[in-house]
Amino acid sequence: MKKYHTSIVIALVLLGMIKPEASARSACTESVPEIFRKVSPSVVSISAMSFDPFKAKDRLATSVGSGFIIGKEGVILTNSHLVFGHQTIDVILDSGFTTRADLVGVDPFLDLAVLRISVPVKNLPVAILGDSDKVQTVEDVLAIGNPFGLEQTLTKGIISGVNRTLSASPMSPELPLIQTDAAVNPGNSGGPLVNGCGEVIGINTAMLGQGESINFAVPINMAKRVLPELLAKGRIIRPWLGVGGKFIQKELGQIINLPLVDGFMVETVEPESPAEQAGLNEGDLPITLAGTEYLFGGDIIVAINGHVFTARDELSKLVSSLRVGDKVRLTLYYGGETREVEMRLTERPLLLGDF
Fold first, then answer.
1. Rounded distance, CA 318 to CA 329, Å?
2. Most C-beta atoms within 10 A of its C-beta, which of 87, 248, 257, 349?
3. Is residue 189 annotated as a catalytic residue, yes or no?
4. Quick one: pLDDT at residue 12?
């Protein structure tokens, strides 16, 4: 993880976004009503609107959700999918005060966004950020937000699991989520997941479409780690090759009668990307196996800078060590032959996924 200037971190501490020490209490005595009274004033309702002039109808699109105040100067944390790409963002405070918000920083991959509002009062209520690394399964949690526009709704549940990785691409950094059975519905997005001490341990972000009471939150420690860069630069700077695809194992080749090796199978190559300039081949043969769709026929990346990987976690560690501007050597398998190409990593565009 990139190191940041001490002055930025000190400023965050003074704003109340990062506590010098999370609450060290092993057990908390607050009741649910007490926790709600403490946390709910910092929870806000968010409404964002976008306008597409090129559509003949349905040119207006709106999204509604939640967020919570993390800085007395009017800094709010919420989800990227709620506000990114919208022309206007409005925030309603617990007091009922409504104001326009500015988008300060956004990271679609982590689904995080930072807003700033003009402060109507001197001391805004600020949520206390906890330590999500200490979260344990079966721990009691509360979700506070605005599901279906019902402001300041509280639901109660437990931590159903931790370190749930839902990323479809091993070429993307790991995104370990917190799983909870606390009821989360449309409008809860961006709201806080709170522990029994009244500390925010996660940002509610997703529901499992086919599931019931299977919901996910971004760990608050992940947000704390990237907040300085979001505030200073407005985005998280990541390296980019410009390929999308899946990690595969050579045993798949026996099923479909194609020569394969262990590695990352390139399914798509982004235009004007380093991968396109280096001449990487994308897939052209769609095949569905056990409900999973593959696009075979492209290059298979078997090594990066000479480091061979045979599993998803090995590849993820290699990817996380790369930086913008690095010169990378890829070992590729294609059509039964192996070759090497070199390229220099550029910055990953905000709107593109994968690696």
1. 12
2. 248
3. yes
4. 47
Residues of the chain with CATH 2.30.42.10: 239-347
**Residue 38, token pair as written in the block:** 């403490």
Distance CA 253, CA 273 (A): 29
Answer yes or no: 94 catalytic: no
Q: Which of 40, 81, 181, 354 is catalytic?
A: 81
> Which residue in the list 40, 63, 80, 111 is annotated as catalytic?
111
Give me the sign of the Cα torsion angle 155, 201, 180, 93. positive
- Cβ proximity of 202 and 211 under 8 Å: no
**Where in the chain is CATH 2.40.10.120?**
6-233
Q: pLDDT-based confidence at 250, cuts 50/70/90?
A: confident
Report the top-level CATH class of 6-233. Answer: mainly beta
Strand (E) positions, 208-312? Answer: 215-219, 239-240, 243-248, 263-269, 285-289, 292-296, 300-304, 307-308
At a CB cut-off of 8 Å and minimum separation 6, what does 207 contact? 184, 185, 214, 215, 216
Question: Which H or E run contains 314?
Answer: helix 312-320
Residue 111 designated active-site: yes
129-138, 210-219, 291-300: segment of lowest average pLDDT: 210-219
CATH architecture of 239-347: Roll (2.30)
Q: Closest Cα partner for 125 from 171, 69, 85?
A: 69
Region at 305 (left for phi over 0; alpha for psi -120 to 50; beta for the rest):
left
DSSP state letter for 18 = S
- Residues of the chain with pLDDT > 70, as a percent, come to 88
pTM: 0.80
The overall average pLDDT reported for the chain is 85
Which pLDDT tens digit goes with each residue over 37-87?
A: 999 999 999 999 988 777 777 778 888 999 999 998 899 999 999 999 888
H/E element, 171: none
What CA–CA distance (Å, rounded) separates 87 from 114? 15
Structure tokens at 118: 């003009």
Q: Is the pLDDT of residue 312 over 80?
A: no
